[in-house]
Amino acid sequence: MPIRLSQPGARRVAVLGAGSWGTTFSKVLADGGSDVAIWARRTELAREIAQGKRNSDYLPGINLPRTLWASPNIAEVLDGAEMVFVSVPSQSLRENLVAVRDIIPREAIVVSLMKGVERGTARRMSQVIQEELNADPAQVAVISGPNLALEIAREEPTASVVSSENLQTATLVAMAARTDYLRSFVNTDVIGTEFGGVLKNLIAVAIGIVDGVGYGENTKASIITRGLVEMTEFAVAYGGKAETLAGLAGLGDLIATCESPLSRNNTAGRLLGQGYSFTDVVAQMNQTAEGLASVAPILELAMAKGVEMPIVSQVAEVLAGTMNPRDIAPHLTSAGDEPQPER
């Protein structure tokens, strides 16, 4: 590996995960002036990022900043980091944190770039981070919003939201991620921000399914609109704020994920709608579609609070093979024949 290029006085940042989003956000941080090191599990990928300033597996055609560096040695990447951004598959987060808990700098701010809920525990990603690192909630932040990786890597203008229970922490992270093409807003509603990022993936799978079947814009617009209602009621039931779900982490992310062919969850749903089985879809996807893994734990959480989620429930039936994708119409379900309040 080449010697790490450092900018005098630059903030030292570590990014764990060299997939499309981890690499893209590393580029954002480097463009924002930080000295960035990426942990890549595969030696050959780390070498390509460090020497060639490319990640051809996940971001073909994108040139990475010269100050961005990578290594398969996670201790080397974490050494001296003031902020640690985590971008690994949500279901492997806990085991990854167990492996690094003793080498993450104690004073570092830890930031989740992930959008998922852990199977088995139904924990949000920030909760897993706090548990495994014994971290103060004020030391943890999450980032969400309409953030399709490739578009940001191409430097197409967009916005994110950074959330932490400590507003100063959120502000520090937002400043680190400030570039000419990305700006971040801040809030202290971690629950709403995280659940928005999780739930929109499930609605995007539903949109992909009806798209794969061949249904048109009326169907998709109805599901998106009713999906936002489900997302909001769920998040509020767990202590989130309704206004958060009407913002970048909710509606903004929902629109981007449902409408773009770059969305992994939309793609997974489209394959399901075209008749592929769940197993076939997983085999065809070269990246994780977090929505597929989050359906079961979200439905468990919804049941615990008495929240009705007909869209997510029908997605679960399609995944289980108990519903024909052509029959999906969750926005048409109701308890009876009487018209229901729109809410």
In short:
Residues 189-328 form the Glycerol-3-phosphate dehydrogenase NAD-dependent C-terminal domain. It is built from 15 helices and 8 strands. It is of the alpha/beta class and 343 residues long.
Give structural notes.
With 343 residues, the chain is an alpha/beta fold. 48% of the residues lie in helices and 11% in strands. The protein is built from 15 helices and 8 strands. Helix 4 packs parallel to helix 5 and helix 8 runs parallel beside helix 12. The longest helix is centred in the middle third of the chain and has 24 residues. The relative contact order is 0.10. The model has no long low-confidence stretch (mean pLDDT 91).
Layout: helices, strands, pairs:
Blueprint: E1 12-16, H1 20-31, E2 35-39, H2 43-52, E3 68-71, H3 74-78, E4 83-86, H4 93-100, E5 109-112, H5 125-133, E6 140-144, H6 149-153, E7 158-163, H7 167-176, E8 182-187, H8 190-213, H9 217-237, H10 242-245, H11 248-259, H12 264-273, H13 278-284, H14 290-305, H15 310-320
Organism: Terrimesophilobacter mesophilus
Binding site for NADPH: 20-21, 41-42, 58, 115, 149, 264, 290
Binding site for sn-glycerol 3-phosphate: 115, 145, 200, 253, 263-265
